[in-house]
Design goal:
It is built from 15 helices and 15 strands. By secondary structure, it is an alpha+beta fold. Helix 1 (2-13) crosses helix 8, helix 6 (176-196) crosses helix 12 (326-354) and helix 6 (176-196) packs across helix 13 (365-377). The protein is globular, with a radius of gyration of 20 Å.
Length: 416
C-alpha cells in the first residue's frame, strides 16, 4: 500500500542526528473576559481573531487556513488558535529552557497592556472556568468545522477539544531504534505526568474535583483515535505506528466540495485507492488524539493539561531530562521489563479513578513521579537546576497542581 509507505517515509523523515536534537513546545491558554470569566470567542468584537490581527499589526506574520486567519508567527514562536479559540503559544527548535522562558515571558508581558485594555486575561489552566461547549464558537476553518462535527458523535470529545487547554512537547529521534526507545519510555511516563499535572481546577463556574477531567473526555472517542496497539511491545517500529495511523478514523477528507467529514471511514479506507499527500498526512496527525503522536518536531507528548508559569518550565525540563538522556531511557526500559506490560496498562487504567494514588509496583503513581524527579535531579545541568524548584511543593508538601492553578486563578480573577 503506497500510502502506508508514505506514513513510514514521513516518520523516517523526522530523524535527526543526536547532536542536532532540539525541542518544540506548545503552551495552551484560555482567553476569557476578566469581568465574568466567560470565553472570548473568535468573532467577538475583541475576539481571538482580533488579537491575532493585533499581533500582525505589531510585525507578526499571519497564518491562514483556507483563507481563515488562525494564527500568527514571529521567528521561532507562533500563536495558533485551537478548535475552541484556545491561544496556543508555540516555540520551536530550542535546547535550553532559559531560551524558552525568555521568549515565553516576553510574549506574555507583550500582551499584558493590550489584554488589560480589552478587559481580558489569558489563563493557563486545563479547562474553561465558566463557559461550556455550547457557549463557545468553533474557529471557522473547514478542518475545525469537520472535526467538531465528527466529535459531536464521540461522547464528550467535543468538550475536551473546545474547552480544554493542553501542553505538548515535541521530541526528536535519530533512527528507528531510537524512535522505539523514545516512544516506549514516553508511554510509560505520560499517564503519570498527566495525573501529576492534572489542572482542570474550575469547570462550569465551580471548583472541579473530578480527576483527569480532560483526559477522561478524550478517551470517550473512538478508541482507534487514541489507543496505540502494542506500543510497549518489542519491537515497535515505524511500521507499527503507521499501522495505528492507517487504522485510525480519518475524521475528514478533501473532495471536490472541499473538506468534509469522513463519517466512520478509517485512514486506510480513505487512502486505499488514492495518493496521500503531505498535507493529507499532516491533517491526519492533527485529527487523531493519542497521548503520543507525531509532528514536525518528531514524537510529540500530548494530552497533558496546561499549567501556569513556572510549572510549565519545570514540566518541560522534566520531560527533556527524562527522554533526552540515554541513561534515563535505559532506566525506563528496565522499568518496563520489570513491571511487565499488563501491570503498566493496569496502572494506566487505575489512574483515571485514583489519580496519583493509583497503584504501581509496590507503591503508587505518586511514588513513580518522585522516582522520576530524583532520577533527573542528579543529572540536570547546574544552569537549569532551578527550573525544577517549583516541583518541590507538589512532591513534598502535599500540594497538587490543581491547588496551584486554583491559587493563581484566584489571584488573577479575585475568585476563591
Amino acid at each position: 500500500m503506497m500510502s502506508m509507505q508514505t506514513i513510514i517515509n514521513n516518520l523516517k523523515s523526522f530523524e535527526r542526528p543526536h547532536d542536532e536534537f532540539t525541542l518544540g513546545v506548545s503552551f495552551g491558554h484560555l482567553l476569557v473576559n476578566s469581568k465574568d470569566l466567560t470565553a472570548v470567542n473568535y468573532s467577538d468584537e475583541n475576539g481571538s481573531k482580533s488579537l491575532l490581527e493585533r499581533l500582525i499589526h505589531n510585525g507578526w506574520k499571519g497564518i491562514t487556513e483556507d483563507d481563515v486567519l488562525v494564527g500568527a508567527e514571529n521567528g521561532a514562536e507562533s500563536v495558533v488558535l485551537g478548535l475552541g479559540g484556545q491561544v496556543n503559544w508555540r516555540f520551536k527548535e530550542f535546547s535550553q529552557v532559559q531560551d524558552l522562558e525568555r521568549a515565553y515571558l516576553a510574549f506574555i508581558e507583550g500582551l499584558f497592556e493590550e489584554l488589560k485594555r480589552r478587559g481580558q486575561i489569558l489563563l493557563a489552566t486545563g479547562h474553561q472556568p465558566v463557559s461550556s461547549t455550547g457557549d463557545i464558537e468553533i474557529v471557522p476553518t473547514p478542518e475545525y468545522q469537520a472535526l467538531a462535527q465528527w466529535a459531536e458523535g464521540q461522547g464528550d470529545l467535543l468538550e475536551a477539544l473546545a474547552t480544554g487547554a493542553e501542553t505538548t512537547i515535541g521530541l526528536q529521534y535519530a533512527h528507528v531504534d531510537n524512535f522505539q526507545k523514545r516512544i516506549q519510555s514516553a508511554a510509560l511516563v505520560q499517564p503519570a505526568l498527566a495525573a501529576f499535572f492534572d489542572n482542570a481546577s474550575w469547570v462550569n463556574g465551580e471548583k472541579n474535583t473530578e480527576l483527569l477531567y480532560n483526559l477522561r473526555r478524550l478517551l470517550t472517542a473512538d478508541e482507534r483515535s487514541y489507543a496505540i496497539p502494542g506500543v510497549l511491545n518489542d519491537p515497535f517500529k515505524y511500521q507499527d505506528y503507521a499501522n495505528f495511523v492507517w487504522s485510525a478514523p480519518a475524521v475528514s477528507v478533501r473532495n471536490a466540495q472541499g473538506l468534509v467529514v469522513a463519517d466512520d471511514r478509517s485512514v486506510g479506507d480513505v487512502f486505499a485507492d488514492r495518493e496521500m499527500t503531505d498535507e493529507d498526512l499532516e491533517r491526519v496527525y492533527r485529527m487523531i488524539h493519542p497521548s503520543l503522536t507525531v509532528s514536525r518536531h518528531g514524537l510529540t507528548l500530548a494530552n497533558i493539561d496546561s499549567v501556569p508559569y513556572p510549572l510549565n518550565m519545570a514540566y518541560v525540563l522534566l520531560v527533556k531530562s527524562l527522554l533526552y538522556n540515554p541513561d534515563h531511557i535505559t532506566a525506563l526500559e528496565k522499568m518496563i521489563e520489570q513491571y511487565k506490560i499488563d501491570q503498566i496498562e493496569a496502572m494506566q487504567r487505575d489512574i483515571l479513578d485514583k489519580g496519583l494514588d493509583a497503584s504501581f509496583g509496590d507503591g503508587t503513581v505518586f511514588d513513580l513521579v518522585k522516582d522520576l524527579y530524583f532520577m533527573v535531579s542528579l543529572t540536570v545541568e547546574p544552569l537549569e537546576q532551578h527550573y525544577l524548584q517549583p516541583l518541590n511543593s507538589l512532591l513534598f508538601k502535599n500540594v497538587r497542581t490543581k491547588d496551584v492553578g486554583a491559587r493563581q486563578f484566584a489571584a488573577m480573577t479575585g475568585r476563591k
